[in-house]
Amino acid sequence: MRILLTLFFLWPAGALAQGLTHPPHPPPPGQRGSDNVAVIAHLPLGQPGSIADVEVEQDPERPFAYVARRVHAKGFDVIDLSDPRRARVIHRWRIKNEDLHQGGAMDGRYFKHEGRYYYVQSVQFRQGGPNSDVGAVVFDVTDLPESLVEIGRIRQSDTPGGFHNIFTYKHSAGQPLLFATSGHHAKVFDLARFLDGYQTEMEEALQDEDHALVGRVPVAETENMWSRGYHDFYIGYHPESGQDRFYGGGGSGYYVYDVSDLAAPELLLTILNVPGVSWGHTFTPSPDGRYAVGETEFQYQPLRFFDMKPALDGIVSNIDHAIGAWHADWRSLAHNHEVRWPYLFVAGYETGLSVVNMENPANPITVAYYDTFNGRHNNREEAMSRAGSPYTWNVYDGAWGVDVRNYDGLIVVSDMSTGFWAFRMEGFSHWDGRDYGMPNISSAQNWDEGPQANDE
C-alpha cells in the first residue's frame, strides 16, 4: 500500500504514459521546476566554477552536508541542515597556501568508525605546485558543529595528481574502506588501519605512505582501450551471493568485480563495445545488482540502462548493448547520479536536477526536475580555448553532484556556478529498498552493523 500511495502522489496526470518535459534554457518564468519539487534551501557559496561534488550524512542526529571547492577556493564547506530551510555554512576548510596549489578538491565522502565520524576529501593537485602526491585529506568531524580536526593525508607518490573520485564502503568483513582512482587501478585503503597509524603516532607507519593500502582493482585489459584507469565507481553488497561488488566506469566501458577478497578481485563481467560508448564515467547498479546506469562523459550522449543478468547468469561474459536510454535535453550531458529504486536522481550539468523513474529500465520516465543552472547552453568561453580536445567543454557547467538523505528523502545538489541546493519531492519522504521489494542497498552505508544488516 505504501508503494502505491507514493507513486500516486508523485506522478501528475499523464506522467505514467509520457513523463515530464524539461524546459528550454534559460527556462521561462515560472517553469524552473516541476510542480512536485520544492526548493528548501539555496546557498550561492562563492565564485562560479569553484564548486564540485556534494555529500550528505545519513544519521538523523548529524544534519551535515559537505561541498567540495576547487579552482578559486581549494577545500570544502560544511553546511548545517538541522533546519534545512535555514541552511548555513558553519565551516570552511582551505588548504594552506591555496594559491600555490594547482587544482582543487573534488569528491568527498564520510564514514564512521568506533563511534567517531570522519570526512575524507579527495584532492587533485598537479605537479608544479605543492602536495601533488596527496590523494585525500582525512578529518575527524565528530564534534561538528563546533569544530573539525585534520587527522592526516593519504599520499601516493607513485601516482601523483591525487584522487579524482573516491568511495567509502563498509566491507562485509568489517573494515571501513576507501576506494580511490589512482593510476591504472582503483586503490583500496583500510581506513581503520590509516587511523591507527596516526593515532598511535607510530613513526614508521607515518613514513610508509602505503601502510593502509590493502588492495588494487585493475581495469580489465582489452584492445584499443580509450583509458587505462577508472574515472568513477560504486561498491555495494550483493545479498543473494554474499559478495562485495565493485562497479567501475573507465577503460573502454564498465567493469564489475567481486572484491570480497581484496587481495584477489575477481572479474564478473564487462560492458564493452556498446555503440556510442568509448569510455565509462559514472556507473551505478540497482539495489539487487541486476540493472545498472552508465554515463559516458560526452555531449549528446544519454544515460544508458543495462541488464546485467545474462552475464551474471554465465550466459555471456560481456554485455554489448543497452536496454534503455534517457536524456533530459539532447544538447546537454547528464553527469553524476544516485539510485534509490525505482528512482534515479541525476545532476545534469546545464539541466540541473532530474528525477527519473527506472522501474522499467527499457522505458525510463522523467517524473520531476528543477533547473539549478542560470546560464545558456553551449555558451562558455572556455569551450573556445580547448580546441582538439575529445571533450565538449562548453556543456561542463551547472549541476555537478547529487545525494539523497534516506531517512527523510532530502535531496541535495551542488551546482558549479550557483552553489548548494536542497529539495523535497512530493511523495518521497524517505527511502528504504525493502518498501519496493528490493534489498536496502544504496550508496548510504550501515557503518555500525555492516552491509549484511541492511537486508534483515
Protein traits:
single chain, 4-stranded antiparallel β-sheet, disordered N terminus, mainly beta, 5 helices, 5-stranded mixed β-sheet, 456 residues, globular
Structure report:
- The protein is mainly beta and 456 residues long.
- It is 7% helix and 39% strand.
- It is built from five helices and 29 strands.
- It has helices at residues 2-10, 15-18, 191-199, 203-207, 309-312; strands at residues 37-43, 51-56, 64-69, 75-80, 88-94, 103-113, 116-125, 134-140, 149-155, 166-170, 176-182, 185-190, 213-218, 230-238, 243-250, 253-258, 266-271, 283-285, 291-294, 303-307, 318-319, 324-326, 337-340, 343-347, 353-357, 365-370, 399-405, 410-415, 419-425.
- The two termini are 21 Å apart.
Estimate the global geometry from the Cα principal axes. Answer: globular
The chain-level structural class is mainly beta
Distance N to C terminus: 21 Å
The main pleated sheet reads as:
5 strands, mixed
Major sheet: arrangement of strands: 14-15-16-17-21
Total count of strands = 29
Mean pLDDT: 89
Strand coverage percent: 35-45%
* Uncertain residue ranges: 1-17, 201-205
Computed Rg? 21 Å
